[in-house]
Amino acid sequence: MLNGRLVEKNPTELLIDCSGVCYEVKISLNTFSVLGDEESIRIFTRLIVREDAHILYGFAAKEEREMFNFLISVSGIGPNTAMIMLSSLIPEEIAHAIQTEDVVTIQKIKGIGAKTAQRVIIDLKGKVLKFTSNSENLFAQSNTNRFDALTALVSLGFDKKSAEKVLDKIDTGDQNVEQLIKEALRLL
C-alpha cells in the first residue's frame, strides 16, 4: 500500500510522491474513475518483478487487488491482461460471470479468447464466492444501481450491448434502479 501525494493522474497510471520518492503505478480504468483529484491518496498495490522491470500495479480497493491476484494466477493471464479485464468490468461483474459460467461476457474483453475465458471460469469458479452483489466496495457502491438495471433489462430480453449504450447515455449516478430502468425502456 502507498500513502502519499498524487503528483500525476492518467487513465492508465499514477505518479505518487511518498516522502520524496515518486512511484509510477499502473492502474485500471475503474480505479481511475473512483479516485478523485485529492492531493493525499492511499492506494493498494501489487509489485510484479520481471527480468527487465519491477512494476507496481495499484488499486483503489482491496477487492480489486484480490481479483487481480486471482486473475494472474490463471495460466495465460498476465498482469496487463488482468488490468484490461479490471478496466472492462468491475470485480463483482467478473466474479458474477465466473460463477454463472458466462463465457461470452469474459470473452468480450479485449485479448480474451474462448479457451482463456473457459480456463478463467474453471480455475476461479470456487475462489471468487466473496465477490457477490452484496459485497461492499467502492466499485459496487458506485455501480450497483447501473448493474441491477442492466441485469433487469437483459432479463427482459433486451440485448446487453444496446442496454449498456442506453445506460451510458442516461446514468448520471444519482438515479435509483427503477428510474434507470424506466428511462432505458423509453429509449430502447
Report on the architecture of this protein.
The protein is an alpha+beta fold. It has three domains: 2-59, OB fold (Dihydrolipoamide Acetyltransferase, E2P), CATH 2.40.50; 63-124, 5' to 3' exonuclease, C-terminal subdomain (DNA polymerase, domain 1, Orthogonal Bundle); 138-187, Helicase, Ruva Protein, domain 3 (Orthogonal Bundle), CATH 1.10.8. 49% of the residues lie in helices and 20% in strands. The chain is built from nine helices and five strands. It has helices spanning 29-34, 62-72, 79-88, 91-99, 103-107, 114-124, 138-155, 160-170, 177-187, and strands at 2-9, 13-18, 21-27, 40-49, 54-59. Strands 1-2-3-5-4 form a five-stranded mixed barrel. Helix 2 packs across helix 3, helix 7 packs across helix 9 and helix 8 crosses helix 9 (177-187). The longest helix is centred in the last third of the chain and has 18 residues, at 138-155.
Helix and strand element order? EEEHEEHHHHHHHH
How many domains make up the 3D coordinates?
3
CATH superfamily of the largest domain: 5' to 3' exonuclease, C-terminal subdomain
Structural class: alpha+beta
How far apart lie the N and C ends? 44 Å
Number of alpha- plus pi-helical segments? 9
Helical residue percent?
40-55%
pLDDT average, as an integer?
A: 86
- Total number of beta strands: 5
Low-pLDDT segments? 133-142
* Name of the CATH first level of the largest domain: Mainly Alpha
Strand content: 15-25%
Give a short account of the largest sheet.
Answer: 5 strands, mixed, barrel
